[in-house]
Amino acid sequence: MHSNIKLPEDYLTLMGNIIPDHLSMDDFITCCKTPLKTSVRVNTLKISVEAFKQLAKTKQWLLTPVPWCEEGFWLEQENTDTKLGNSWEHIAGLFYIQEASSMLPVTALFKEQVSGPTAQYNTILDCASAPGSKTSQIAALCNNNNFIVANELSSSRLKVLSANIKRCGIKNVALSHYDANVFGTWLPEMFDAVLLDAPCSGEGAIRKDDKAMLNWSLKSINDIADIQKELIDSAFKALKPGGTLIYSTCTLNGIENQAVCQHLLDLYPDNAEVIPLNDLFPTANNCLTAEGFLHVWPQIYDSEGFFVAK
């Protein structure tokens, strides 16, 4: 347990005001102080899920399916001589070490509202794509057949993104290095789909980074939300008419989540509409909000805290 994690009083008050009635704050605090389980996503550009399962048996890796991603698994190593990230299978790009909740936005992008054919997108913009988990998930679901613009503002993170794209065998990506708020003006109505996994306060990431809350304050989350509102406006403008936008964060407060989505709906009352995510996977109702968003509290699925809107 991360016994040294300190949760600010203002943060606990904020969470206490919005936590659903069926969840408890005690469970939330306990879960925040418990390290995350390791989860991976099979890179189907290089190996099938069935072949990976067979490989896992030979490596004494115990796999538990992630309910919202057919390629996702929680993984326990019985033989821990080699760190997972140093294994030849990881270096060769057979899998991506990715937090389970982080697999939700791309699943939401591709699953239709009603059970039916997978959505087809020829052009996709990933606004803040480093280190590449969601870009690589998109590329694998499209089998390298679409065109992805993977944008990243940070120079150092861009290098990591480039390395992961090469490692995973992705061939349909153009990297760009801009502030994502330019796309709505520069490339209006250009993309079939846009994924904005927005820069955020990272409240949901505390289980893997005990320093995630060091700089947290009510002022900081309001400042971040102002940036997010600019980004979601730009992302929406970059969509073709009828296109799909996914907005996600690894944070839990409503200021950076529901309020940012409502800002977009207020800006474009005749053009933007929410697609409810209640059918995304069998137990999605456990984290569904009244608006149809997914608000994943960490204790529900023993995962990172996350938010997804479509």
What brief labels describe this structure?
32% helix, four-stranded antiparallel beta sheet, 11 helices, 2 domains, Alpha-Beta Plaits, 11 strands, seven-stranded mixed beta sheet, 310 residues, alpha/beta, Rossmann fold, single chain
Describe this protein's structure.
This protein has 310 residues and is an alpha/beta fold. Helices cover 32% and strands 18% of the residues. Helix 9 (218-237) packs across helix 10 (258-267). The longest helix is centred in the C-terminal third of the chain and has 20 residues, at 218-237. It starts with 8 loop residues before the first helix and ends with a strand.
Helices and strands in order, then pairings?
Elements: H1 9-18, H2 25-32, E1 39-42, H3 49-59, E2 61-65, E3 72-77, H4 88-91, E4 95-97, H5 104-110, E5 123-126, H6 133-141, E6 147-151, H7 155-167, E7 173-176, H8 183-186, E8 191-197, H9 218-237, E9 239-249, H10 258-267, E10 294-296, H11 298-301, E11 306-309
Parallel strand pairs: 5-6, 5-8, 6-7, 8-9
Antiparallel strand pairs: 1-3, 1-4, 2-3, 9-11, 10-11
Helix pairs in contact: 9-10
